[in-house]
Amino acid sequence: MANPVDNGVETNRKRFTLEALAEALVLDPRMSGKALSHLFGLTESWISIVRNSDAFRVILERRKGELVDPTLIATLDDRYRAMAARSVEVLFEKLSAPVSTISDDLALRAATLGATMFKAAAPQPAAPPESSIDKLADRLVALQQGFRNTTLQQTVTIEATPP
Question: pLDDT: is 88 or 122 the higher one?
Answer without folding.
Answer: 88
